[in-house]
């Protein structure tokens, strides 16, 4: 073999080996997408496809990203079938102010899990929670009342116990299956607490999706005797679903209410289940709009403060058509036992009071307010007169 040809061949083999080694190194750095067919696996990143890190984005792009994030507030709401998510959606629409305020309602596991989200989840500044859900955190967070503050007392979440025809009273549930929805929901947390207080312990508690449990109830399978909802009435599942004759709500007598409030279910709420001359006694838990107690002067405090101002100023819109009917029952000054009000919310109330008290004349006092503030102030005066 001529020496020139042999040298050329040797150099070619060395280049091929080097290229193969380099490719193997790139392959070793490429993530393996096990379980996916080859055609579904992401293509290896080439030099022209190399992703650009956020730190390498253009200055104009960085400015736009900062602009989007500057006044965005995460609101932990709840599951799609509950009232909290509807309330959160109403809030997001009404307080929206373009780049100046953007509220993101978040579908979560429920008002109980929202306490953990408010404490630990990045991006969550406010949440809709049930007031009794703080109890589970007190053992490891003794000062939880200082970490979480309330903005508004929104609405009561009523206890609903829908039972099969043969179940005539709470005593008939003994030894039977009762479903409290999936873990993390208000029913799964507050429901058992309520049942313990009612001394209803001799039953089989299940925590499966309510849709599954209700189908079992209707078909009479798996000994499912009742389902427990803890949410604001009326519940769509009871209004829109088709139920066999005889299904009914159980009355819930209570002597010591503790965290709870007396409540009633009527034919206005559930005409298919309750006669016009009938009332079903039950109990309710306050559901509140809460905020992480950010330090005053911090960026996160400023975001929540802007949400508070827009929310309070525009409460009249929320209490009008097109929003959840329970908004009409919201009183801005209503307190929540055991918690302090978020600083910006208390300042809004104090500011509104000071403006009205600056002049004894109601006309002059309200003339310095916005129309919404003037109306809300008059409503507050009527509320204070009736409650003091």
Topology (elements, then pairings):
Layout: H1 3-29, H2 59-70, E1 72-78, H3 83-95, E2 102-107, H4 111-120, E3 124-130, H5 144-147, E4 148-163, E5 177-179, H6 186-197, E6 204-206, H7 210-219, E7 224-231, H8 236-240, E8 248-249, E9 261-266, E10 279-292, H9 299-313, H10 315-318, H11 343-357, H12 362-367, H13 371-387
Parallel strand pairs: 1-2, 1-3, 5-6, 5-7
Antiparallel strand pairs: 3-10, 4-7, 4-8, 4-10, 9-10
Helix pairs in contact: 9-11
Summarize the structure.
The protein is an alpha/beta fold and 388 residues long. 39% of the residues lie in helices and 19% in strands. The chain contains 13 helices and 10 strands.
Counting structural domains, the number is 2
Question: How large is the radius of gyration?
Answer: 29 Å
In CATH, the architecture of the largest domain is: 3-Layer(aba) Sandwich
By CATH reckoning, the class of the largest domain would read: Alpha Beta
CATH evolutionary superfamily of the largest domain: Periplasmic binding protein-like II
CATH topology of the largest domain: D-Maltodextrin-Binding Protein, domain 2
Low-confidence stretches: 5-17, 19-54, 362-369
Mean pLDDT: 81
Gap between N and C termini: 112 Å
Shape: globular
Specify the oligomeric state: single chain
Helix content: 25-40%
- Structural class comes to alpha/beta
Q: What share of residues are in beta strands?
A: 15-25%
How is the main sheet built? 10 strands, mixed
**Total helix count?**
13
Beta strand count: 10
Spell the H/E element sequence: HHEHEHEHEEHEHEHEEEHHHHH
């Amino acid at each position: 073999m001529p020496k020139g040809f042999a040298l050329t061949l040797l150099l070619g083999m060395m280049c091929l080996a080097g290229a193969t080694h380099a490719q193997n190194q790139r392959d070793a750095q490429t993530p393996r997408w096990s379980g996916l067919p080859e055609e579904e696996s992401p293509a290896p990143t080439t030099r022209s496809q190399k992703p650009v890190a956020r730190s390498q984005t253009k200055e104009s792009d960085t400015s736009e990203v900062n602009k989007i994030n500057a006044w965005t507030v995460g609101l932990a709401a709840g599951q799609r079938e509950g009232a909290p998510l509807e309330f959160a959606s109403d809030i997001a629409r009404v307080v929206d102010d373009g780049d100046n305020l953007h509220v993101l309602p978040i579908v979560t596991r429920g008002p109980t899990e929202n306490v953990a989200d408010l404490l630990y989840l990045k991006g969550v500044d406010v949440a809709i929670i049930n007031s009794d859900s703080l109890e589970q955190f007190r053992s490891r967070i003794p000062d939880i009342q200082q970490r979480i503050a309330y903005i508004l007392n929104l609405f009561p979440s009523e206890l609903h116990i829908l039972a099969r025809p043969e179940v005539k009273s709470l005593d008939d549930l003994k030894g039977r299956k009762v479903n409290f929805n999936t873990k993390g929901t208000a029913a799964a947390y507050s429901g058992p607490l309520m049942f313990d207080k009612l001394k209803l312990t001799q039953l089989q508690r299940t925590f499966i999706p309510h849709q599954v449990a209700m189908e079992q109830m209707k078909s009479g399978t798996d000994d499912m005797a009742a389902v427990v909802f803890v949410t604001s009435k009326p519940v769509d599942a009871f209004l829109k679903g088709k139920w066999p004759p005889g299904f009914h709500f159980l009355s819930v007598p209570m002597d010591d209410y503790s965290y709870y409030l007396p409540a009633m279910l009527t034919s206005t709420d559930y005409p298919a289940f309750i006669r016009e001359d009938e009332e079903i006694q039950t109990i309710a838990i306050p559901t509140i709009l809460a905020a992480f107690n950010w330090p005053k002067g911090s960026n996160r405090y400023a975001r929540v403060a802007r949400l508070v101002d827009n929310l309070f100023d525009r409460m009249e819109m929320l209490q009008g058509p097109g929003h959840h009917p329970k908004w009409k029952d919201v009183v801005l000054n209503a307190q929540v036992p055991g918690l302090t009000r978020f600083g910006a919310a208390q300042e809004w109330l104090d500011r509104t009071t000071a403006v009205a008290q600056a002049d004894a004349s109601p006309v002059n006092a309200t003339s310095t307010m916005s129309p919404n503030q003037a109306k809300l102030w008059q409503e507050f005066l009527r509320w204070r007169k009736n409650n003091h």
